[in-house]
Structure formats: C-alpha cells, structure tokens
C-alpha cells in the first residue's frame, strides 16, 4: 500500500461530468466543447479546488484521443523566467494542431509572473491567437495585468462546498472499501476547508492507519487542532484564566507540534462560532490580526501567542 498512487491522481476527474460542486463552470466549459471553440480563459482561485482538473478535462473532451498532442502544461513559477516560457510556447504553437483547429496552453501559477513578464506573455498570446488558446491559472485574478484579464473569459473557483467534498469522498470510500464515520467526515471537511486535494490526502493518510475513519484518526494524521481545543483555549483566556489557556497552548505547540501560524489561523476561524457578544468578537479579530502580522514578520511564535492570550485574559 505504501507504493500506492496518490488518491488525488487516482481519482482526478477525467470528464467534466465527474467534476463536483462546479455546475456553472462545467456548463460553460461544455458549451465550448460543443461549439468546438473557446476564448482564452483565466481560472482564479485557491489551491486544490479543480483549476488544473477542469483544464485537463476540457482538453480531453475538446480533442478526444489526440488531446496529448494539443495540450501543453507549463508552470510559470518553475520555469526560469518568461523567456523559457515563451520559447516553449513558441515551439509548441508553431506545429499544426492535430484533429482540432487550435491547441491549448495551460499556464499554471501565472500570477507568479512579474508585470513585465505578463506583458511579454500578452504579446505572445496575440501572436499565436489563431492557433492557440491559453488557460491561465492563478490564485488572485487581481495579480494579472488588466490587458490580459480583458482578453480572457474569467472563471472564479471558490472553495468547494462541503456537500461536494462529501460526495467525492463517499465515492472514494466505496471504491477503497473504507468506512467514513460521521465524525470522521466532519473532521475532514473542517481540515480541508474547501480544498479537495487536502481532503483526499487526509483521507488517504487516515485510511493507511485503519479501515474505519473516525475523527480521532483524522486528527491524528493531520497537523490541525480539534476546533474544541482551540475554543477551550480562547474561552479560558477570555474568562481570565491565563495559566489554563497557556497550558492548552503548550499542548498544541509541543505535544501536537502545530506551528504558531496554524494555531492563529484556526483561532481566527473559530471566532464566529464562539458564544460571546459581538464587541468581544470585534476585539478578538483585531488582536488576532495584529499578532498574526507579528508572526509573519518572524517574531518568536510562542512569545507572540502567549502575549495574545495574555491580552485576551486582561479584558
Ligand atoms: N471540483 C472537483 N471535483 C472533483 N475532484 C476535484 C475537484 N477539485 C479538485 N479535485 C481533486 O483535487 C485534486 C486537486 O485538484 P486540482 O484541479 O489539481 O486543483 P488546483 O485548483 O490546485 O489546480 C485533484 O486531483 C482532484 O482529484
Ligand atoms: Mg493546479
């Protein structure tokens, strides 16, 4: 089992119809397939939500058997600069497309390109527009220069809804003969936070330890605290029990080995579920924001998190 293919690849949708939780995007992409034509596309959204998957599935449906010859994937951040990207694109674009009337170039992490590089890319897009369509993938469309944005149809890939994650994991579980208990599914949904890649990886890691996946097992294989642990820690400090909250913090940092960044991100996520008045939530959001900034700047995590708990416990 240790040599097993990652489930993210094993269960990557082949057809657009296998993509879950994206009905509008799938419908638009299918309409390109049926017209056998498409504009340049810009896919924007966080990691693990189906951008690469949709580009691959679109190419398969558009070109059928010959999709490999008509599709090129390039990562804008691995390649050494825009010149390499342009050379690769040029070589690919120059040869005739097989079976179709254009080829697709998928450029992943295109927001890693500097504005200058993006301008060069824009010219490349113009030169080859009759033979190539570009699919640019990025985390933030705002990091793409306006002249490229205006040449593309923009698709926004938000975090996946929980029912989409449930649907896909249930399918995988059936195929792998594992059972996901309700609390196991809740835990995976919480950890994944809309990211299907994270959901599948977590499930696979847990399934390595047991065929029956419960919350316990899921938290064991993930570097996440249970929401209750974070909540207890915040409540202890808000209630003025600084020492108790510090003890809980220690257990997360030392026993669980979580990073300060993980903990503060989870604290931020937990705020809205706390049973406290709105003004205290406002105060919490404000303080967490400040300490998160300090962590990012590289200060000592333990000191900063303790300082945050100390401030919360002072009222
Ligand atoms: N909407 C989706 N439907 C089904 N599987 C998905 C979906 N989105 C992501 N996945 C799964 O998660 C993995 C990561 O998706 P991918 O498309 O590579 O994400 P990214 O948005 O980072 O390009 C894929 O291998 C696929 O199995
Ligand atoms: Mg991707």
> What share of residues is helical?
55-70%
The beta-strand count equals 7
The N- and C-terminal alpha carbons lie at a distance of 52 Å
Strand content: 5-15%
- How is the CATH topology of the largest domain named? Rossmann fold
The ligands found in this model are: adenosine-5'-diphosphate, magnesium ion
Task: Looking at this protein, list some descriptive labels.
315 residues; single chain; 10% strand; Helicase, Ruva Protein, domain 3; Zinc Finger, Delta Prime, domain 3; two-stranded parallel ribbon; 3 domains; 56% helix; five-stranded parallel β-sheet; 7 strands; binds adenosine-5'-diphosphate; Rossmann fold; binds magnesium ion; globular; alpha/beta
Write up this protein.
The protein has a 5-stranded parallel β-sheet, sandwiched between helices. A two-stranded parallel sheet has the order 6-7. It is globular and about 70 Å long. It contains 15 helices and 7 strands. The termini are far apart. It is 56% helix and 10% strand. By secondary structure, the protein is α/β, with parallel strands linked by helices. The protein folds into 3 domains: 22-156, Rossmann fold, CATH 3.40.50.300; 162-221, Helicase, Ruva Protein, domain 3 (Orthogonal Bundle); 227-313, Zinc Finger, Delta Prime, domain 3, CATH 1.20.272.10. The chain has helices at 7-10, 23-35, 51-63, 81-94, 115-127, 146-149, 162-176, 182-192, 196-209, 215-221, 227-238, 242-255, 260-270, 278-296, 301-313, and strands at residues 40-44, 71-75, 103-108, 132-138, 152-156, 179-180, 212-213. Helix 2 (23-35) packs parallel to helix 3, helix 11 (227-238) packs across helix 13 and helix 11 packs across helix 15. Helix 5 links the parallel strand 3 and strand 4 (132-138). The mean pLDDT is 92. It binds adenosine-5'-diphosphate and magnesium ion (MG). Magnesium ion is lined by residues 51-52, 108, 137.
């Amino acid at each position: 089992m240790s040599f097993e293919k990652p489930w993210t690849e094993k269960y990557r949708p082949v057809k657009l119809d296998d993509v879950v939780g994206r009905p509008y995007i799938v419908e638009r992409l299918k309409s390109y397939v049926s017209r056998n034509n498409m504009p340049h596309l810009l896919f924007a959204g966080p990691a693990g939500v189906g951008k690469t998957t949709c580009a691959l599935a679109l190419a398969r449906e558009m070109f059928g058997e010959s999709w490999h010859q008509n599709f090129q994937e390039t990562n804008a951040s691995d390649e050494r600069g825009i010149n390499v990207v342009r050379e690769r694109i040029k070589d690919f674009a120059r040869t005739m497309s097989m079976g179709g009337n254009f080829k697709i170039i998928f450029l992943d992490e295109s927001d890693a390109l500097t504005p200058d590089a993006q301008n060069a890319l824009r010219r490349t897009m113009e030169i080859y527009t009759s033979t190539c369509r570009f699919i640019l993938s990025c985390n933030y469309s705002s990091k793409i220069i306006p002249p490229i944005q205006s040449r593309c149809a923009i698709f926004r890939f938000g975090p996946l809804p929980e029912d989409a994650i449930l649907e896909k994991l249930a399918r995988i579980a059936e195929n792998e003969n594992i059972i996901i208990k309700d609390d196991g599914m809740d835990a995976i949904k919480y950890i994944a936070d809309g990211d299907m890649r994270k959901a599948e990886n977590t499930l696979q890691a847990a399934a390595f330890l047991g065929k029956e996946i419960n919350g316990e097992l899921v938290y064991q294989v993930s570097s996440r605290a249970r929401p209750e642990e974070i909540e207890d820690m915040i409540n202890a400090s808000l209630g003025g029990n600084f020492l108790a909250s510090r003890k809980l913090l220690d257990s997360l940092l030392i026993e669980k080995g979580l990073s300060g960044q993980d903990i503060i991100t989870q604290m931020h996520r937990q705020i809205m579920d706390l049973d406290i008045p709105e003004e205290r939530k406002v105060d919490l959001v404000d303080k967490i924001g400040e300490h998160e900034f300090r962590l990012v700047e590289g200060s000592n995590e333990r000191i900063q998190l303790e300082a945050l708990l100390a401030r919360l416990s002072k009222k």
